[in-house]
Amino acid sequence: MFSDESRYKNxxxxxxxxxxxxxxxxxxxxxxPKYSILGYHLRxxxxxxxHLAARYLNEPTAFWRIAEANDAMLAESMSEQQEIAIPTKR
Length: 90
Hints:
Blueprint: E1 13-17, E2 23-27, E3 37-42, H1 49-57, H2 63-69, E4 83-87
Antiparallel strand pairs: 1-2, 3-4
Helix pairs in contact: 1-2
């Protein structure tokens, strides 16, 4: 269900009933991995987190790793942050 790069790959899954009475599968949120910080990037106007992930991690879809390294639940919440911690590649 999840790619090999996903932190949800080995997460516990279970079933619950939603408010309509349907049975749905949910995934438990795994612990946030501990990242070593490569360094800090001073963001320029127009730079998005996926741009930084492409530049430093060679994978634009790994933007969530940068968000996690900056204690951000959502990458969008970092839109005003000027100094961005960049995690090392795995």
